[in-house]
Write a structure and sequence with these properties.
It is a multi-pass membrane protein. It comes from Vreelandella salicampi. Keywords: Cell membrane, Membrane, Transmembrane, Transmembrane helix. By secondary structure, the chain is mostly helical. It has one domain (3-201). 80% of the residues lie in helices and 0% in strands. It is built from nine helices and no strands. Helix 2 (22-34) packs antiparallel against helix 3, helix 3 (36-67) runs parallel beside helix 5 (108-120) and helix 4 (69-93) runs antiparallel to helix 9 (181-201). The radius of gyration is 17 Å and the shape is globular. It starts with a helix and ends with a helix. 43% of the residues are buried.
């Protein structure tokens, strides 16, 4: 995979991870309720769930593209519509109160379990990956290139939430995130709508 193409993938994955939502609230809750270790644990296990969905998506898109090109096109257009809807929703969210976390007592095993479940119980995540990864998957793509895509999505998700957990365990990052949630929402919305247009125009090269 060309480095410039990988940078596009990494940037989109980063914006998706940074977008305020239930995953961020999960990490905040476990960090505030149990400290650094439960917060980091929730982050890492959430990343495993994300990696699992990314793997399923890459394998499924490759099969669709090779065997049913028309169906693949319909799936990607449906994904583009979904991305555009997410982008509009993010732009309209403003100062949405999604970055909230109650400091309830929590443990590392509980954080690990909930980290995976929050990722795997979110069907919207795989729809997001279908639209996103359709721009990077090709029928002739090697196993190594597919592994890079999956690892990129998983590692960026894990690194972002681990950083959030580490920062929260030392300082008052939550108020800072809450005050800037609307800017995160706006940046995410613009990028999602731009990606939806890119999907309609054709794969990235």
């Amino acid at each position: 995979m060309p480095f410039s193409l990988w940078l596009s993938l990494a940037a989109i994955c980063a914006m998706g991870a940074m977008s305020p939502g239930p995953s961020l609230a999960l990490v905040l809750r476990h960090t505030l309720g149990g400290g650094r270790l439960p917060g980091v644990t929730a982050s890492l296990f959430h990343a495993l769930g994300v990696g699992f969905y990314a793997l399923l998506t890459v394998l499924g898109l490759g099969a669709l593209m090779a065997r049913f090109p028309l169906l693949f096109q319909l799936v990607t257009w449906g994904g583009a519509a979904y991305l555009a809807w997410l982008g509009i929703k993010a732009l309209r969210a403003g100062r949405a109160g999604s970055i909230q976390a109650n400091a309830v007592l929590t443990t590392s095993p509980q954080a690990a379990r909930e980290g995976v479940l929050v990722a795997l119980s979110n069907p919207k995540l795989i729809l997001f990956f279908v639209a996103l990864l359709s721009q990077f998957v090709s029928p002739e793509m090697s196993v190594a290139a597919k592994a890079i895509i999956v690892l990129t999505a998983m590692i960026i998700d894990g690194v972002w939430y681990v950083l959030v957990a580490l920062l929260l365990s030392h300082s008052r990052v939550l108020p800072w995130l809450q005050q800037r949630a609307h800017w995160i929402n706006r940046a995410t919305g613009v990028m999602l709508i731009g990606l939806a247009l890119r999907v309609v125009l054709g794969p990235l090269a």
